[in-house]
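INFO  loader      accepted 1 record
INFO  loader      residues=116
INFO  predictor   begin
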Amino acid sequence: MAELSKHTPSPVPYFLVFAGLLVLTGTTVLVALADLGAWHTTIALAIAVCKAALIVLFFMHGLESSRLTWLVIMGSILWLAIMMGGTFSDYLTRKQDEQIRNPAAYIAEPLLQPCV
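INFO  predictor   done
INFO  writer      dumping tokens
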């Protein structure tokens, strides 16, 4: 009978990923303290996506998984994108909703003022 060989991964990649996660966590702290204006949320989400990708690929063994596992990973990323898209579209259109519900408060002044 053929013996099944167990693949024992080296601990070096895990330590490197751990160091990368620590660096990204420090970057998150620095970004939280910086005044970035409207880019604050975008940069924080980008850092979070990088950390999540490292965790899924290395600690959850996504790199060594079958195609079915990759299909599940891609499906969950698609579902997350749909949910975030709905959330951001709601957030971005809130002022428009208020303008539709209460148009009297948003009547614009005339563009041309009479010269006196």
